[in-house]
């Protein structure tokens, strides 16, 4: 069951457009990896909302019902703020528009073709993935250090709310699919397929943005990205272990109880209020 009740927060970050390519570490190679993920989020989050919404009537537990509504509200706010980010990204790097369109088209087709249980399986897999990314960001202050404050605040807010609601879609899944062998196979298959598709789109998209920026063969930039995302913080290699935890038959997102990171929300909301 959910250890934390998620809360929808209507915050706007008013991102400064001129920093979109350099907001993290002053480096396009570092910033554009996060920007690439942002391109997937508005359509991805709409897909998650729809997947969970189709099962809302099957949830009997009133607490889970409340959490589902908060989940939908949070993902809708994330979508709005990431659309604002993506708009300034597309203005700076027009090639990003093609990536956004491609992902939107793919998800629209999956929305139409996949049975709803498969869509929920993909949703809980990607929610697991975002929860791991969020935990990495929130537990190592170096990841958002040396960043433009509004961009950093937006990503921190998103990571905090992903942590708050990390078990909601999963609990809906368990409520409607149970914990039998069929549910287990569908859940694990969902993570394997979602991971392959995610990186299969994310890596070429990231390279395409860097190419459009004329940075594909900038060795100093690559060294910086490697240091930031790989060697110094271990952010990317550290994803592996929590990713694999999902395959435990009795896995639950709150097995990893990281609710202590949520105290970061207070200072963040004070900053956001001062900006709006
Ligand atoms: Fe989100
Ligand atoms: Fe989420």
Automatic annotation (TrEMBL):
One of its GO terms (molecular function) is hydrolase activity. Keywords: Hydrolase, Membrane, Transmembrane, Transmembrane helix. InterPro entries: UCP07580. The chain crosses the membrane at residues 184-207. It comes from the Bacteria. This is Metal-dependent hydrolase. It comes from Pendulispora rubella.
């Amino acid at each position: 069951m959910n250890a934390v009740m998620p809360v929808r927060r209507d915050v706007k970050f008013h991102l400064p457009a001129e920093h979109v390519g350099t907001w993290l570490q002053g480096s396009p190679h570092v910033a554009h990896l996060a920007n690439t993920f942002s391109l997937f989020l508005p359509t991805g989050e709409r897909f998650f909302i729809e997947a969970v919404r189709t099962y809302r009537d099957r949830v009997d537990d009133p607490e889970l019902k409340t959490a589902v509504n908060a989940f939908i509200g949070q993902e809708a706010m994330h979508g709005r703020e990431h659309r604002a980010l993506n708009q300034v990204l597309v203005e700076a790097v027009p090639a990003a528009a093609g990536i956004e369109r491609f992902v939107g088209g793919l998800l629209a087709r999956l929305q139409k073709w996949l049975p709803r249980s498969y869509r929920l399986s993909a949703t809980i897999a990607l929610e697991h993935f975002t929860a791991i990314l969020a935990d990495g960001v929130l537990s190592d202050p170096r990841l958002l250090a040396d960043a433009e404050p509004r961009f950093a605040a937006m990503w921190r807010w998103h990571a905090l709310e992903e942590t708050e609601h990390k078990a909601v879609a999963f609990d809906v899944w368990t409520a409607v699919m149970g914990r039998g062998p069929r549910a287990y196979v569908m859940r694990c298959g969902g993570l394997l397929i979602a991971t392959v598709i995610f990186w299969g789109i994310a890596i070429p998209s990231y390279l395409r943005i860097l190419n459009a920026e004329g940075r594909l063969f900038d060795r100093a930039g690559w060294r910086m990205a490697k240091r930031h995302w790989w060697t110094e913080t271990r952010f990317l290699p550290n994803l592996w272990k929590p990713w694999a935890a999902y395959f435990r038959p009795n896995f639950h997102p709150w097995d990893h109880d990281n609710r202590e990171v949520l105290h970061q929300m207070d200072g963040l909301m004070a900053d956001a209020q001062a900006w709006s």
